[in-house]
Write a structure and sequence with these properties.
The protein is about 95% helix and about 0% strand. It is an all-alpha fold and about 90 residues long. The longest helix is centred in the middle third of the chain and has 84 residues.
């Protein structure tokens, strides 16, 4: 091989290496982007779950208050009835 052939061979090998590295980096980027999309989906799902849990907790609290009010009203009515019956 003469000097030009050696130079072109080196250039070819360097280019081949760079192409391979570029492909590997693109593949790694694709995997990272896919993982990021999955994490974003999980984050959104967790946030929605938290919002729903808070809403359900508020519903339970409101229902418990309503039930307590009904129990108190019932107790007051019974107390009135007992007072009327005892007169």
């Amino acid at each position: 091989m003469n000097g030009d052939e050696i130079l072109w061979r080196r250039v070819f090998l360097a280019l081949e290496t760079l192409i391979k590295e570029n492909k590997e980096l693109k593949d790694a980027l694709d995997r990272s982007e896919q993982a990021l999309t999955e994490y974003k989906d999980m984050d959104r799902s967790i946030r929605e779950t938290m919002v729903n849990a808070v809403a359900i907790g508020e519903d339970y609290k409101n229902n418990a208050k309503k039930e307590a009010e009904l129990i108190l009203q019932g107790a007051r009515l019974k107390a009135k009835q007992v007072d009327k019956e005892s007169e």
